[in-house]
Amino acid sequence: MRVLIIGANGLIGRQTARHLAEEECGSLILADCVPATPPAGARIPVECRVGDFCDTDFARDLLQGVDCVFHLAALLATESEADLRRGMSVNVAGLMQLLMLCEELPRPPKLLYASSVAAFGGPLPETVDDDVARTPQTSYGTHKAIAELLIDDYTRRGLVDGRVLRLPIVLVRNGPPSNAVSDRVAALIREPVMGKDVTCGLRPETRMSITSAHHAATAFQRLASVDAAAFRHTRAMNLPSLSVTAAELAERRSAALRCRPKAASFGHPTRHCRPWSMAGRAGLPRRMPVPSGWGRETPSTTSSPVSSPRTDCADVADT
Ligand SMILES: NC(=O)c1ccc[n+]([C@@H]2O[C@H](COP(=O)([O-])OP(=O)(O)OC[C@H]3O[C@@H](n4cnc5c(N)ncnc54)[C@H](O)[C@@H]3O)[C@@H](O)[C@H]2O)c1
Predict the structure, then answer these.
(1) Containing domain of residue 47, as a range?
(2) Which pTM does this prediction carry?
């Protein structure tokens, strides 16, 4: 089998490449506009391709002979909100072109796609399961909802074999802090691990759903192997995730790092965790603009090939 990962240099792409390279899956193509590095100790041939998947010739060439595509390239929430046109061209037009190029292939490929819980929004029930109506409140969430519908329709027509996971916030992103919503949550774990202070722009009681890149990649791998007959009326489903408050995340992180218990208490500045009330003074909004819906539990009702064993906060730091 020939497997293509688009967005292979990203947080989830790198983890997915690592998982697939350990399987004897045939061969792997890692595509990204930034050069991706083949996973160490890969047991299969790995080819790296650099280019923009929105470029028709590049995308057509990438797809030649491919049986399975993991489409993980996107403009994330903050950038899509800041630049509507760019977000549309990568997240919507890029996907539409990919689907049309799949039509040209002799066999419909499997298409694994990373959607987001940002496809949900507005007033939501306490538990947001797979079938809650998608009423996104951001451009990024709207792009994801459009993508889910298009992949369902292309699957219904037998042009691709689509499989879509709605991911919660995926932790832990390495590298310098960025403006991404998920990165501000990731900073709660990443910065103290690096021995740095972190100022949290979230209220301690803000509840959100999270998972690790490791669990997301494992779930994608399982989803790729599920029999097509096992799906219901849609190929989109939530990734069952951990529901946690910002305060709980910081506390468990401190416990995992064996910090003194006070490191996670909100009233006591320590080396690792400044009090939450300082966020405003540091120029950060007191409340991060988390798209509505992110603070709810998101179980999957599909008896799930992607359900993972109970996740613990400490697991989230395992990437
Ligand atoms: N990280 C999260 O918390 C999260 C949550 C929900 C959904 N998702 C979705 O999961 C997928 C992967 O997310 P991630 O966190 O790994 O993102 P990321 O930004 O870390 O990685 C995306 C990769 O795609 C590449 N890319 C972007 N546009 C490209 C283009 N036009 N051509 C080629 N490569 C391009 C980037 O260079 C980057 O390496 C995305 O679809 C994202 O929307 C992520």
Answers:
(1) 2-169+210-238
(2) 0.85
Distances (CA, A) of 89 to 30, 73, 263: 21, 12, 44
- pLDDT, averaged per 10 consecutive residues of the chain (319 residues), comes to 97 96 90 96 95 98 97 95 97 98 97 97 90 96 98 98 96 77 81 80 85 95 95 94 88 70 31 27 28 46 43 36
Angle between helices 11-22 and 213-225 (to 10 degrees): 50
Domain check: are 38 and 71 in the same one?
A: yes
Tell me which of 4, 5, 6, 11 to substitute to probe ligand 1's pocket, judged by most ligand atoms within 8 Å of the beta carbon: 11
Distance 8 CA to ligand 1 centre (A): 8
* CATH number of the domain residue 71 falls in: 3.40.50.720
92 — phi, psi (to 5°)?
-110, -60
Q: How many domains does the chain have?
A: 2
Q: What is the pLDDT of residue 261?
A: 35
Q: Look at residue 41 and tell me if it is in a domain.
A: yes
**Phi, psi values for residue 254, rounded to 5°:** -60, -40
pLDDT of residue 156: 97
CATH assignment at residue 286: 3.90.25
Could you tell me if residue 298 is inside a domain?
A: no
Q: What is the pLDDT of residue 62?
A: 98
What local confidence, expressed as pLDDT, does residue 126 receive?
A: 84
Out of 195, 218, 238, pick the residue that ends a domain: 238
On whether the CB atoms of residues 2 and 27 are closer than 8 A, the answer is yes
Asked whether residue 77 falls in the same domain as residue 216, the answer is yes
Catalytic pick from 70, 113, 120, 140? 140
Assigned domain for 299 exists: no
